[in-house]
Amino acid sequence: MTDSPEIRLNPAVIPLSIYLHWPWCVRKCPYCDFNSHGAPKEPGALEALEGAYVDALLTDLEAWLPDVGGRPIESIFIGGGTPSLMSGRAMKGLLDGVRARFSLAPDAEITMEANPGTLEAGKFEAFREAGVNRLSIGIQSFSDDRLKRLGRIHNVREAREAIRLARDIFENFNLDLMYALPGETMEGLKEELDEAAHSGATHLSCYQLTIEPGTAFAKHLPEELPDADQTAEMGDFVEAFLAGKGFTRYEVSGYARQGRRCRHNLNYWTFGDYLAAGAGAHGKVTTREGIRREMRFMNPRQYLHAVEEGRSAAAEIHRVDPEDLPFEFMLNALRLLEGVPECTFSERTGLPFEQIASTLRDLRARGLIADDPGRIRTTRLGLNFLSDVQEAFL
């Protein structure tokens, strides 16, 4: 790649989303490396916190208003942590507050993450009435033994009840599943996938269990983990099996029925913008001067104090250097199996396509990028070596 020229950006054409982070869980899982914290144990303590936290989220979001420029919000994602620990009243206050500050697209996708064991019918209905129109449920497994090994607080009965409630109240919901779990066999994986595929879910997110640094699993490795060959075989099986059940793999970990791809995640992968509020939340915004990234304070108390005292909740703010934009773009776009149109690169980065043309030619010659006129996407070989392909743009 040649030296980066001056970038030319038009923020008005960049899609815009909002990410809101709820940092508390009943208990942190041993494999989890997200910014999540055990909820206060004292009776009523979390309920007392949630009002102040919702107020802080809305105040924090206001800091982004000068960058919006009238763009509508295409999607909202409320992640965590376990947002389903929130009351319906708090969720209504949060989403009403967002609507009062921003213009939402008429068909905006509003997703909330939920965990079985923190839900009941009344809460589901309250979340739906507040405006949530897509649920993402952290099932992870339909085996009590594997759930116990993962440190999950719910059991299979609670998982199935959460799915039943979701099916009754939401037309659009996702299940999170994990594979290559301790003690898992191919037959066990097949049973898991079959139940998920027939659950009524419109979307499945299937993640390989990875041992992340700093997690409890990294300190005490679980026994009976599948080896690398077994794990690869499981990954291939997941894709083939779900295709036969009407779920198309469109992203590294994403499988959707027709018309049910996650719009919020698609905005990430196509290098759109997303405003962020909440402890540890990451945001990205495009201005005519360049692309800016921000990260909020990770500690919930520190985050709350900063907002309540009228200070910025941003722990880090930086402009993305133009020479880093090709890698940042490809880090996202190449996760999509269909890739993106070539024109998206220039539209979202402000750089001329020539900036990456020679790297693409080299990767095509090596069989890692598809010879697909007008699109940038990996081949199956390239997808298997995705990190290497992405790093070629550094």
UniProtKB/TrEMBL annotation:
Q: Name one GO biological process term.
A: porphyrin-containing compound biosynthetic process
For the keyword 4Fe-4S, the answer is: yes
Which UniProt key words apply to this protein? 4Fe-4S, Chaperone, Cytoplasm, Heme, Iron, Iron-sulfur, Metal-binding, S-adenosyl-L-methionine
Top-level taxonomic group: Bacteria
Q: Which residues form the Radical SAM core domain?
A: 10-248
Family matches, as PROSITE patterns: RADICAL_SAM
InterPro entries, per the entry: Coproporphyrinogen-III_oxidase, Elp3/MiaA/NifB-like_rSAM, HemN_C, HemW-like, rSAM, rSAM_sf
Task: Describe its function.
Answer: Probably acts as a heme chaperone, transferring heme to an unknown acceptor. Binds one molecule of heme per monomer, possibly covalently. Binds 1 [4Fe-4S] cluster. The cluster is coordinated with 3 cysteines and an exchangeable S-adenosyl-L-methionine.
* The name this protein goes by in its record: Heme chaperone HemW
